[in-house]
Design goal:
single chain, 612 residues, mainly alpha, two-stranded parallel ribbon, binds L-captopril, binds zinc ion
Amino acid sequence: MHALLSVVAAIALAQAPAPKPATPDEAKAFVKKLDADLRKLWVRQSTAEWVKSTYITDDTERNAAAMNEDVMAYVTQATKDAQRFKGLKLDPETERMLYLLRMSTALPAPSDAAKRTELANTAAKLEGLYGKGKSCKPGKPGKDGKATEECRDLQQLSKVMTRISDKKQPASYDELLEAWSSWHATSKEMRPLYERLVSLSNEGAKEFGAPDLGELWRSAYDMPPAEFEKETDRLWSQVKPLYDDLHCYVRGKLSKKFGADKVGATGPIPAHLLGNMWAQEWANVYPLVEPYAGQSSLDVTKKLEAQKYDPQKLVRLGESFFTSLGMDPLPSTFWERSQFVKPPGRDVVCHASAWDVTFANDLRIKMCIKIDEEDLITVHHELGHDYYFQNYYTKPVLFQQGANDGFHEAIGDALTLSITPEYLKSLKLIDALPRDEKGLINVQMKDALEKIAFLPFGRMIDQWRWDVFSGKVKPGEYNKHWWELRLKYQGIAPAGGARSEDFFDPGAKYHIPANVPYMRYFLARILQFQFHRAMCQAAGHTGPLHTCSIYGNKAAGAKLKAMLAMGASKPWPDALEALTGQRQMDATAILDYFAPLQAWLKEQNKGQQCGW
Ligand code: X8Z
Ligand code: ZN
């Protein structure tokens, strides 16, 4: 700059009034406006999302992406504006809202408008690809002689996976592998889009003051991000020994069934042999690993079919559990607006979810319900979300969230822990109660295949994303790292050796293309037992934890309600304390619950070389 000019500029600067320091009152006014603005934007956004998810077309996708873009633009700007209040002594409510604002999106956008548009469109395309995913091959020529295609979607391919232990029509090793491989080929084309999503959202995260998106996600737990990561490791190390015992036992049984050439007595389990597309929950292999044959049947699916349950009746059953605790019935609009079954002739996002579309008790679930035990549990899971919404919808919108996201995922599941054999028998969903220790071990095995098998999967998904977002793992190693973590945490491996980088296997799991953080589900598996233990105490239960059911207990319901009503208005340790008296997440409840099974597994595994 010219010397004289710079002197002039310096004088002008000295004379300009200094920017006024922000005041606590301004911060209060800021969050008041923020609440009103966000409410308006979020209602528009979730309306567009609902329409898109229940009717995937180019138009609804574009429409939803446009709304997301508006929200992104607003949140990016508001987060920057809120910087003015940093360091001020604020009232707790204002302080909390400003904290939650920065965490309010899983997909922060850069302020550059073109990049923001690209990010919103990329995210929409990725989720759309998952919802539309199909595996097609040439079919028989049609009557007119023209070529046809035979396509199978996730529901159809998953159905094959569940037939691993079917009595009438068991799927063979090769059939299972074919279904698994077919689904895992559908996500190939997501790879370049995902790369863009990582790079653009990382740019956004930087503008939010985080080094990368993984760290921003880890900042949402009322503690420094590094400490949160340590917490997840601590919890995982508490439960890993039990997982290892289960893995060892199941591997032994699968080895017997499929032969040692397919499932070795040591080493990982092939990923397609656990009755689930992602090997995340293993309940479908129960008949293959049943500890004691000849006990009373635990096959709820058969009974649901025999009793002619339809989707509506299944959801009513879920609702009745919540009302038995003293909660309100679901609003009539729930029954009018929810999607229970896959509508014919159009693509929808079948992955189950729960909604309060207008943040005003406008509760819904969106599912493609099958009449089986898995969806009986999922219905309770989704209603858990809806009942959280129902208890906090009068709060400011930023407080209309779980105390942390793991809490939200844990509510419905905590209640399903009270779906005991006694409860099922009262509904005539099983004929007889397990009689003795053997019956108990059978029940616990079934529960563990659901709850314990999930833990390493829940822990590894975001480890992969954290490593991707931080740049530790480059795009050329996406698949390699995915399978390294699958091996490390779960002890599973793809059949037929390494999967090449032609595939994008992470994309075959909904939450990756949909960009839903996953650590919440790991936390939830642990928290739900902690919640269950506390509610059982409130209900006056004294015996072992696995014998407790809080069904119909209003005292337990009142305690739960009190926590739900807090939403995210307080740091999560306060909410945890309100229900459990503890301020730390703690895996001792899940370990207590499964103590009988763990002792039994240790006995069974004697002489085996466990681990992989
Ligand atoms: O995504 C879900 C719910 C919707 S929040 C159906 N879950 C995870 C999954 O399916 O992978 C519930 C269990 C874990
Ligand atoms: Zn959920």
